[in-house]
Amino acid sequence: MSDPVLGALGFAAVLMLAALRVPIAVAMGAVGAVGAVWLMGWPSASYVMASLPFEAVFPYGLSVVPLFIFMGVFAAHSGLSANLYSGVHAFLGHLRGGLAMATVGACGVFGAICGSSLATCATMGRVALPEMRARRYAPSLAGASVAAGGTLGVLIPPSILLVVFALLTEQSIGALFAAAMIPGALAMLLYIAAIAVQVRRRPEAGPAAERAGGRERWRAFKRMWDAFLLILLVIGGIYAGLFSPTEAAAIGAGGAILFTALRGRLTLAALKAGVEETAELTGMIFLILIGAALFNFFIEASGLTRSLVDAISAADLPAWAVLIAVLLFYLVLGCFMDSLSMILLTVTPAFGIATGFGFDPIWFGILVVSVAEIGLITPPIGMNLFVIQGVSRDLSLGTLARGILPFILADGMRIALLVLIPGLSLWLPRLFRLMP
Q: TM segments (predicted)?
């Protein structure tokens, strides 16, 4: 059996184990370890298995992961999400579908603090769904708007997925953060447009609320000042060159604690719960990183990546056809796997193909993360749909699946724009001189 064939069988084995509900970290680690022993023999493979887990989680850049998670956890505990929702609602609530639009807008801002799609979805779902239910919004529109808005936590910086992609591919975290800003804003606008189209066709799906007065809007805006200040400190500080992403993450974590204290919600119990939640999420991510490191070592040692690049080059396919094939692969895989596991599992061969065909690595990273974002709301897995169902038990997966279709179409339009106009991703990194 040739080594590339062994690598392909290993890839299939991980997918099969994932389908059997084996934790993805265990699946990747076990297949990677067995494959390494098969290729190299026990003495060499045992050395790799002893050193690689440490090397996988040792990089200094990974320290941003627990810090950004910590920031998001305490932003949720401080009640910031409720203030964001009420603030955006004051400006959009009087429109048809305004509550759903406000949900998307608040998810975008909260995602810029939280960095996690699932956390954004769960937190905003608890705030927005009862309000939309009280206003007699169609359940499909209410649930789908939160699920779609939650995906903005994956794309809008600081995103944990962007950090992981940057570290695995040795790209600049700051450049990827800058590259994600315009696509993230575009996603938010297209989601709002999708809501507007739906309520235009079915006005009863999103009844308009009363218009807020100028004084009420000003009070609502003042309640959001800490959220915008936190975003400005973290993201603005990185782009202005005042501090590194790791330093920005530490400042953001400290700021989240400070704002929680200022709101009078920093109790010993809240601190303990926040630290425990941060530790659990960080441990999960780091365990997946260790499994992915073992698996990616096996894939590289098997020569699968090089063989794929050579085979595609020999087929003489145009670069655009290769790109579409890679994105479709991610789209299909995203229907069955969570985004972090999917990227960790596939980034080595996919990035090798991308660089082999001369694609810009920052642009390619934004495309991959954007397609992974679509997977979060695509049945049958669609992690965000399950989160919404957990928050509101009366919403069935069938109802959510029907409501999410317009948002998936909006995502398709956004991916097409990002492919056709690379400058949407690359203009800001070049403006801030974060890339050539």
A: 31-50, 57-80, 100-129, 141-167, 173-197, 224-242, 248-266, 278-299, 311-333, 340-357, 363-388, 400-428
DSSP 8-state secondary structure symbol assigned to residue 206: S
Residue 336 — pLDDT band, cuts 50, 70, 90? low
Q: How far apart are CA 404 and CA 396, in angstroms?
A: 12
CA dist 435 → 43, 112, 173, 177, 315 (Å): 42, 22, 11, 12, 32
Q: Positive or negative CA dihedral for 300, 172, 332, 382? A: positive
Q: Mean pLDDT throughout 293-308?
A: 81
To the nearest 5 percent, what fractions of the chain are helix, strand and coil? 80, 0, 20
- Enter the tokens of residue 268: 């010993």
Angle, helices 80-92/64-77, rounded to nearest 10 degrees: 70
Run of H or E residues at 255? helix 245-262
Among 78-92, 160-174, 232-246, 418-432, the range scoring the smallest mean pLDDT is 78-92
pLDDT for 404 equals: 92
Q: Tens of pLDDT along 51-63?
A: 888 887 887 777 8
DSSP code of residue 210? P
- Other C-beta atoms within 10 Å of 56: how many? 22
Q: Please say whether the beta carbons of 20 and 6 come within 8 A.
A: no
Distance, in Å, from the CA atom of 263 to the CA atom of 44, rounded to the nearest integer, reads 56
- Of the chain, the percentage scoring pLDDT greater than 90 comes to 18
Closest residue by Cα to residue 403 from 144, 19, 17, 158: 144
Residue 1: what pLDDT? 47
Cα angle vertex 362, ends 358, 365, to 5°?
95
Chain mean pLDDT for the chain:
84
219-226: long-range contacts, CB 8 A cutoff, minimum separation 24: 220/86, 220/87, 220/89, 220/90, 220/91, 221/87, 221/90, 223/83, 223/86, 223/87, 224/83, 224/84, 224/87, 224/109, 226/78, 226/80, 226/259, 226/262
Mapping DSSP to helix (H, G, I), strand (E, B) and coil, where does residue 305 land? helix
pLDDT above 60 for 2: no
- Is the separation of the CB atoms in 237 and 248 below 8 Å? yes
Alpha helix locations (H) across 80-159? Answer: 80-92, 98-114, 117-134, 139-150, 152-155
Amino acid present at 213: G
For residues 427 and 431, what is the distance between their CA atoms, to the nearest angstrom?
Answer: 6
